[in-house]
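pasting for ref
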Amino acid sequence: MQSKISIVKCTDYQPEVVFEALKKSLALLGGIANFVRPASSVLVKPNLLMAKEPQFGITTHPQIVRSVIKLLKEINCEIYVGDGPSVWGGQAENIDEVYERTGIREVCHQEDVKLIKFDKSRWRGKFSLTCWLDTCDYLVNVPKFKTHELTTLTGAIKNLFGLVYSAHKTQLHKDYFQIEDFARILVDIYKQTRPALTIIDAVSSMEGDGPATSGKLRNLGLLLAGADCLALDSCLAIIMGLSPLEIPTNKAAAAQGLGISDINSINILGARLEDIKQEAFQLPATSIKRHLPKPVIELAKKLIKYYPCVERDNCTRCAICIASCPNKAISLKKKSIVFDYSKCIYCFCCQETCPKAAIKVRKSIAAKIIGL
């Protein structure tokens, strides 16, 4: 059994460049009508993590979304665009500001499509997911390729976490804070939602302490497309310099047979991986532990730890980290951010939501001794 995906070069975010690259990528796969029935209703779900402009590289670029809309229009689809961004203190970030600053509102206005809010949900299995999944015939997943402090990689599978309703995200982080458990939850969401098509914005990607303001931008100049999210994320892992099963969501999805992770069983059309591989990505500081020999980890896993801490020179004391913490481990005392590590579950939601890159990673003494 093989999965088929496409990888095409896309040098920049100029509208005509993006559209031609996306059109080519889908033509290699039989065209968009091979995934979405003409005249159907479609939910387009980008990654709109936070209210930051496109140049920060944190969110799916609006020109990628525009090109997806244009191709869906060609087959007369009714199109809805939306996402559920970060949650602070049980409330979703101001979605209007997110849509405005990410450029998505302008694109939807210009293309005359419906920009929606995930304001209603229903339970699907263990998850409270947006009701727009019921309204629409198809889901088109449009993630941004980035590193991630918790999951190492955020791409096709991880982007679907945004379909979870508002404060339920916080509860899931609190209940499933171990990386293997959280990865399984993400894969369970993938099982519930199964996008008809995924298009990955890897024109500009992120390495280092992603997925938000602490990461470093890296120009890749690529678009990836296909229906198999595991195959797509496995290719992203290879591009990063990792093996596919080093990504916890890939490992969890492969264990359940939810796609193909073996690169030799993925039919890659367009650019070849060997032609586009570059220097390995700088990984998040917290990911290094997962790449130690297993015996070392077993002996020292209680001692090797990574903690969030505040870099006071960058901190504006906006208190977003306090609101985002699922276990209420952060407080503001004497105008300083303070962590209660007895409560910290090391989910790094604080770092993910910090608008000023003021949350950094602190290593335990054992980690420093080992040389991590």
